[in-house]
Amino acid sequence: xxxxxxxxxxxxxxxxxxxxxxxxxxxxxxxxxxxxxxxxxxxxxxxxxxxxxxxxxxxxxxxxxxxxxxxxxxxxxxxxxxxxxxxxxxxxxxxxxxxxxxxxxxxxxxxxxxxxxxxxxxxxxxxxxxxxxxxxxxxxxxxxxxxxxxxxxxxxxxxxxxxxxxxxxxxxxxxxxxxxxxxxxxxxxxxxxxxxxxxxxxxxxxxxxxxxxxxxxxxxxxxxxxxxxxxxxxxxxxxxxxxxxxxxxxxxxxxxxxxxxxxxxxxxxxxxxxxxxxxxxxxxxxxxxxxxxxxxxxxxxxxx
Length: 304
Hints:
This protein has 304 residues and is of the alpha+beta class.
């Protein structure tokens, strides 16, 4: 297909998708939405490799044919969407109701907890969604999801870092099982263009420019969890807080254990301090008693 014809077809499809969204209220592609002004203000053009600037990676996805989704942090239903009915939905796995479920075109809350990460340097990180409890496949609130349209890590790392940092050892897991342990580094061209950030895509059925594993699109739908693990390099420092390949409750358990250890350590230290004060107090009391005895004896002798 010639380039000019390709542009005409693309423009026609874009117009159709936009019309479909207005008419049905159902999203088509996560990257077809508008970038929010509040998000644009936060994006810095120059990449800072020093580790002093905190960057973030958010798990994002879209499944079909009935649309369960979490969009990019800068998109509609994103972190900075202030529209009524869309605000505060970034931390919710969203789904569209169907006629079969009796809630056609209604936005519903699906089970699922997100894990996002803060990136402060080189390290291995995992983003994902867990505790799905079968919400994508049971057809209770939305129709049964059968395939993936999009799976990606949406970051606020500026595109100026594109040739300075690398995402390697990229793994895609479903229900804790590896589906691809060597995914390519593919940055979504739409996000590079506007708002100018790196969105690391594992599955993207809307752009055919990337070398993505097409088999992943029809992977068996997740019942419990979906995750992306990647290793970042190119910063000047390592991130000691990188969460590695841990997803979900295991991460919380580790934090709880750490907190418990800190508390125990604190209690021990407190007990130690109390114990160390005891002989000091006894010594002071003994010294006071001796002084009193001496004073009494002296006073008695003077009277004699």
